[in-house]
Amino acid sequence: MSKYAEELRNTAKAMVAEGKGILAMDESNRTCNKRFDKVGVPTTEEMRRSYRELILTTPNLSNYISGAILYDETIRQATKDGVPFTQVMKDNGIIIGIKVDTGAKDLAGHPGEKVTEGLDGLRDRIAEYYEMGARFAKWRAVITIGENIPSNACIEANAHALARYAALCQEGGLVPIVEPEVLIDGDHTIERSYEVTNQTLHTVFDQLYRQDIAFDQMILKPSMSIAGKQCPQQSSVEEVADATVECLRNNVPASVPGVAFLSGGQTNEQAAQHLNIMNAKYAQECPWRITFSYARAIQQSALEHWRGDNSKVEEAQKLLLHRAKMNSAASQGKYSLDMEKEAVAV
Ligand code: 5MM
Q1: What is the DSSP annotation of 152-207?
Q2: Tens-place pLDDT, residues 129-142
């Protein structure tokens, strides 16, 4: 048992507290620059710092957000007035999280498939992040659906790495967010998405069990069971919610405190609606909290409004807060599309 067991249990519960979700702002420089490029923001370290300051200084963010996942560059940065971001988060009651994987790389011998790397030196990095105030971590595995993929080799290699990462986190005092993402890209049906997600979650929990992970000291960050973006037959909101919850029930131990979804390229409204129906329909019968750990479905409208213009910071923060509020409502089954009309005066 980890010497941090009690702290880990308490942190995991706080991460998925009623009405709260996790803000993913852990884009690597490459991903962040890609998002900046699309909206014409210069891809410099200073612009990434300014953008992350905009996010972390959003007034009242902690009403809806329990914790935020940072990237290595971000956890070392500070506001323009010199206050470390970690201090801003502590002052605002937002738990500090850190992405510790070093990215999804080509899986040898398996064209079109990826395996996530980052185990080398991870024990020391975890110790450093803990000292800096981090209390949870994240590692994302990427599973692609396509012709004859995913292979068992891909699912197993990623599940094994996730389990070894989770063990190191629990040893070092960080709650592991275990994120096996089945990509939404492609023309696969919802049934195929369910099948692959089911196999992936089954394999991941088998590996977590084999590595002696304490299930009550971790958070699962899965993708939803949903038709591929290019599939001609798109499912209803209810079909996605039903398939997703069924898949979780088949695989996720009751002692896991929370399931915090990624948005995976869904629109803002889709991500909120799916989360909402899952909660409205199933929250009472599910043992874990069902909430969000969205990046794009919280940040995108703010980024598009800001576009690097500092006179727009306050307005962008209102847009960001609005999305956090919508998803908070969805995590309690209290969201409706009408709420999108709530005045966001920008
Ligand atoms: C799937 O991506 C995660 C959730 O984001 P969305 O809600 O937008 O799907 C996110 O935490 C992701 O891991 C980072 O944004 C991207 O990290 P990399 O390592 O790919 O730069």
Answers
A1: HHHHHHHHHHHHHHHHHHHHHT-EEEEEEEEP--SS--HHHHHHHHHHHHHHHHHH
A2: 999 999 999 999 99
Instruction: Give the CATH fold of the 5-342 domain.
Output: TIM Barrel (3.20.20)
What tokens were used for 39?
């909206």
For ligand 1, atom 11: residue with the closest CA = 24
Q: Is 190 exposed, middle or buried (CB count within 10 Å of its CB: 0-12, 13-18, 19+)?
A: buried
For residue 252, give the amino acid letter: V
The rounded Å distance from CA 342 to ligand 1 centre is: 28
Atom of ligand 1 nearest to the CA of 262: 7
Q: State pLDDT tens for residues 173-188.
A: 999 999 999 999 999 9
Residue ranges covered by each domain of the chain: 5-342
Q: Is 26 in the pocket of ligand 1 (CB under 6 A)?
A: yes
